[in-house]
Amino acid sequence: MANKVSETREEEIERFAQIGKWDEKSYHTLDLLLNQEFENGERRAKRAGVLSYNRIMNPQSKHPVEWGDTFASSDLNPEESLIFKEEQEEKQRESSEKAAMILEKIDTLAPLDKDILFGIWVDKKKQKDLAAELGMSTRTIRRHCNDLDAFINTLR
Fold this sequence. Notes:
Elements: H1 2-19, H2 24-48, H3 78-107, H4 111-122, H5 127-134, H6 138-155
Helix pairs in contact: 1-2, 4-6, 5-6
């Protein structure tokens, strides 16, 4: 079976050489084909415990660096963690202040306007249904909605 895989790989490499099409995709595919045997060997060695990806990248240096040391970490350092926490607290405080301001403004509305505001924008009722529920005409609800549109724009 391994011979068939090798033969197929060799045939593909020869086909690339004969075609002579060298765009980016072809280069990538050819690179995969050429490195396949080497990478398979590395995977087998790693599985057997003979190879580790935590290799030393510059063994002749005074301060050798292992490959694993070069991978970025998503963990925050203490300073970044503190800054992140302060930013979150600031956002929370701003949100709370804005919510309190909105509630204060809503409290200034007339009871009918509050009912219409919550009926149309919060409960997503149709004007016709809300008018029937409140015992008013649809035109009255529509007029109040137009007034409330301006009020909602002041909340933003």
